[in-house]
Structure formats: structure tokens, C-alpha cells
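Entry 14. Ran structure prediction on the chain below.
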Amino acid sequence: MRIVIKTNPSFTVPQTAAGIYVHELVSRWILQDSVSEFTCITDGDPVAGNGLCSRTLAVTPAIKGEISARFWYDVKLPGVLKKEKTGLFIGAESYGSLTAGTRQLLLVPHLAFLQQRKMFLPHEKIAWLGKMVRKATHVVVPSAFAKAQLEKHTQLPADKITVLHAAAGPHYEPVSWAQREQTKVTYAGACEYFLCYGTLYQYRNIGLLLKAFSVFKKWQKSNMKLVIVGDTPGKYAAELDMLDTYKYRSDVEMLDPQNTQTMAQLVAGAYAVVHPSSYEDIGMQALEAMASGVPVIAADAGAIPELCGDAALYAPAGDVEALGQQMIKVYKDESLREQAIEKGKQRATQYSWNNQAAQLAALAARLHG
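Output, C-alpha cells:
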């Protein structure tokens, strides 16, 4: 079977949960499949396929907006697929061609733009996505929550969508007491800390988290810190302006994005990972926390309840007081915390990148016929 995969630099060197999701699924599939012929195709940058496929094609022009994207996918791509005698095209960036006759499998790792459309590029519009997924032979999403969202907004039949969950990477695992202590010294002034991390979009509710931490500090006279790690897109930086006058500012540590090994240390060293996001379709942070033996406190929204089950402590989405009380509860009740840790570690074993990649390979084989 000849398979062509659309890639880009953010896919081959992933920095986001969506990039990691696609990279892990596809790269592990390629490693497992010794029969199919894989070709990576890029819009002008051959480096984007390095290390994945045995062969990479750079097809110009580079995509720089909606018009060039439509031209690339609907004019340039069909000819390349035909010339390559492609059996299956993998749209690893959620996009496919509206004019190609080749079977298409689209990987749609995130649908957050349904909630915040203004933050995405012009060509990432729900109308165009709807046309592409309906044209595709099949679509893969990271959660049942994402599947329901896609069905709702595109009217795509349920049998055209397959759920393949994410998993924690190999760096995310429990660490020794000494390692935890060293991480606390390095990043939290030798104090215990709650951790929140990821790209700090508006739906991640960082302002709400700070208010919930205030509830915790008001009722618990402790030296607990709050460590927040991640990029803040410019238009959402205002949400952090409250830090300038925040009563507990000295107990909040703001860190830039970290490499995978450092991030794994921060997760494993945390007292709990707090994830107040009101919209989450991948849930990578929750999976990484559970695999690291760290409790998860989260909003009961998006894919988190689906992924964590009864291993997490939940608060209604948007409820500051409830989130703060859950932080207090996990701090005061060591038995509850230990139960959450054990349930989380057991839950994390249900998710495996290799197993999901094998399911992706089986799905591709069925689609190819």
C-alpha cells in the first residue's frame, strides 16, 4: 500500500499536544508497518518530513493563508497523489482535498477553534473543515468528546469517525522522594506546589485558577505554591494582568514552556496537577499527571472525565469556589490523595501509543481495502 502523509515542521518536531498526538500516532505506525510505502509531502519545506518517511516530497507553493491553502490542497495535491499512485492520503493537519479521487484519512487532533475561532488562521474555518471531513473517507479524533463535537458541527455520520486516545510519553513516570525534593528546590522555593501547564488559551481559565488558589490560600495557612508553565498567546495575556495586584503573587511561579524532560520533572514533582480548562479534546496533561503518580484536579468538562474516570477530583466548570475546595481537600486528606494517585496510575496503563498506532494501521488497511 502506498501512503502519502502531509506533514509540517511542527508535526516532526512537535511542541503542542496536537502535534505530539499526530506525531506519536503516525511515527509509531510507520515503525510498526514494514509492508506499506510511506512518502511524506510538505508545502515547500523538505525538512518537515525528516526522520519519518523514507522519502519526502516538497510541493510548492508554501501555504500562507486561506487562498494558498485551498490552491495547494485542491489543485496541487490531487496531481501529486495521482502521480504517486497513492492508495491512501493521510491528512495529518486536519486538512484534505475536496477534489482528489484518492481515499483520505484525516487526523483531527483538536477542535478548540469551535470555541475560539478568532485565534486561528483564516483557513481554519468550520465551513471548510465540514466540507473536508465530509469528503474524507474517514476521520480520527482523540476523544469521544471530540467525536461528539465533530458530529454536532459538521453533521458527519458517527461511523465515519474513530476515536484514538492519546497517551503519556515515556518520560512521564513516578520519581523518587529525592527527585521530587530537588524539583521543588529548583522551581518552587523548596515548597510543595500545584501545577498547571499548557498553552494558556482563554478556555484554559487561568484567571479562574488564580481565584481558586486564593480560596485555597485563604483557608489553608501553608507555603503551597502555584506553578504555571506555558505560552500565553498575545490576545489572552490580559487574563494574567491580575497578577500585578494579586494578593498571593509571591506564591505564584510563572515559567516559560520547558523541554519534555524538564516538564516531566515538574509534573512528577507536583502535589497535584490542576486543569480548570472548560474545553479539552486531547487531555494530554491529565494523562501525563496520572502516569507520573500525581493527582488530577479538573473541571468536569471536555474529555477529562472520559479519560480520568473516578481517578480525578472534579469541580463544575467555571466554579471558582468548588475548584478551590477540591485543592483544599487533596491537601488536607492524604488518604484521598493517595487513592487518587493509585487510581490514576492504574488508569494511565489503559492508554498506550503503540496500541493506538496499531489501531490506526488496522484502520488504514481496512480503508485501503
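Residues 30 and 52 are 7 Å apart (CA to CA). Will compare against last week's run tomorrow.
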